[in-house]
């Protein structure tokens, strides 16, 4: 699933979008969008980028970030949609599984089932964030470092490079001769998920008066809910993490952008919108969701405790060889008998 990118909003709607309140503003400095996401290079350096599968499809559907062995951060719009009245409606596959970090999106082995979700105050615009809890550990990792408001200020001042990752569509959706916006067509090879995670990089910079010329002074003051980018181009993927290295540690900033008036690999407005000053993207900084993470961690602690209590140990013998087997349903290995 590529980034969800609504088409152009009228001015009145854009005012409502921006009337929100939080703590800080970032702007991802413009690079050439034609090279930002289209045919982005494969990159396996981030040890926490995971493919996410909705059902038993041939390819991964969207991407996520492995925060800890059983907790994955991703995009809420992969689980929820909105009706014509703006009400949030659950719309998700019956089974969602997560593959191992940097594994092939075509590889179904080793995937772990999602058993619980914790969704932010997801709205049609903003807070597009959800936490998945897995049935068991995917791999053994320590909890990831997360962006804080204090770190954010440092990153903006230094115009730090950040990386966008994801398995989603990395080529233009349009077939030769088609005009934007182009619809999903899984027979179109330009609309396939990348087999391995790809990366594109941008630099952070403070919000500049040269961007978003349609904003009033008051609206600029109110634009404090999300991290903002312009122009978006097509740098990321639904749920794909935005990360940087801060003081030697891989640090998670938030999940991939949503936006308006953007080209987004053929999913949004016409290609002429690539560098338009009225195009913008947004994502919710992770430090806004610390309470949600605590809820997920509490659930995992209870889950681990319950699973530990249900494990049973048996002793198996094969001649003089003795083995102890401890699982929730232990069986002796071939050739061994229960002692």
Give structural notes.
The protein is built from 5 helices and 20 strands. It is of the alpha+beta class. A 9-stranded mixed β-sheet has the order 10-15-14-11-12-1-13-17-16. A 6-stranded antiparallel β-barrel has the order 2-3-4-9-8-7. A hairpin with a 2-residue loop joins strand 18 and strand 19. The longest helix is centred in the last third of the chain and has 21 residues. It is globular and about 80 Å long. It starts with 10 loop residues before the first helix and ends with a strand. The N terminus is likely disordered.
Residue-averaged pLDDT = 75
Question: Structural class, from secondary structure content?
Answer: alpha+beta
Low-pLDDT residue intervals, each spanning 5 or more residues: 1-37
Helical residue percent band:
10-25%
Rg from alpha-carbon coordinates: 22 Å
Q: Which CATH architecture of the largest domain would you pick?
A: Beta Barrel
User: Largest sheet, if any?
Assistant: 9 strands, mixed
CATH class of the largest domain: Mainly Beta
The strand order across the widest sheet is 10-15-14-11-12-1-13-17-16
Strand content: 25-35%
- The name of the CATH topology of the largest domain is Thrombin, subunit H
Task: Work out the helix count.
Answer: 5
**In angstroms, what separates the terminal alpha carbons?**
52 Å
């Amino acid at each position: 699933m590529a980034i969800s990118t609504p088409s152009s909003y009228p001015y009145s709607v854009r005012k409502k979008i921006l009337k929100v309140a939080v703590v800080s503003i970032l702007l991802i400095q413009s690079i050439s969008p034609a090279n930002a996401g289209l045919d982005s290079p494969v990159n396996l350096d981030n040890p926490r980028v995971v493919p996410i599968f909705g059902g038993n499809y041939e390819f991964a559907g969207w991407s996520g970030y492995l925060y800890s062995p059983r907790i994955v951060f991703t995009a809420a719009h992969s689980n929820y949609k909105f009706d014509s009245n703006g009400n949030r409606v659950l719309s998700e596959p019956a089974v969602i599984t997560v593959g191992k970090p940097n594994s092939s999106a075509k590889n179904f082995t080793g995937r772990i089932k999602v058993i619980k979700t914790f969704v932010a105050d997801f709205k049609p615009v903003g807070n597009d964030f959800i936490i998945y809890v897995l049935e068991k550990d995917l791999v053994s990792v320590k909890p990831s470092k997360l962006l804080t408001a204090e770190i954010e200020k440092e990153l903006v001042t230094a115009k730090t490079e950040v990386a966008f990752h994801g398995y989603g569509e990395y080529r233009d959706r349009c077939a030769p001769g088609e005009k934007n916006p182009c619809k999903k067509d899984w027979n179109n090879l330009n609309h396939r998920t990348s087999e391995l995670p790809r990366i594109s990089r941008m630099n952070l910079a403070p919000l500049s008066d040269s961007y978003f010329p349609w904003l009033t002074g008051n609206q600029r003051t109110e634009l404090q809910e999300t991290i903002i980018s312009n122009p978006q181009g097509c740098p990321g993927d639904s749920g794909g993490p935005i990360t940087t290295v801060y003081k030697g540690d891989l640090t998670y900033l938030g999940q991939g952008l949503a936006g308006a008036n953007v080209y987004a690999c053929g999913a949004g407005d016409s290609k002429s919108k690539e560098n338009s000053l009225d195009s913008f993207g947004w994502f919710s900084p992770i430090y806004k969701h610390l309470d949600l993470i605590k809820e997920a961690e509490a659930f995992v602690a209870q889950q681990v405790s319950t699973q530990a209590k249900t494990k049973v140990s048996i002793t198996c013998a094969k001649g003089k060889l003795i083995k102890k087997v401890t699982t929730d349903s232990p069986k002796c290995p071939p050739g061994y008998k229960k002692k």
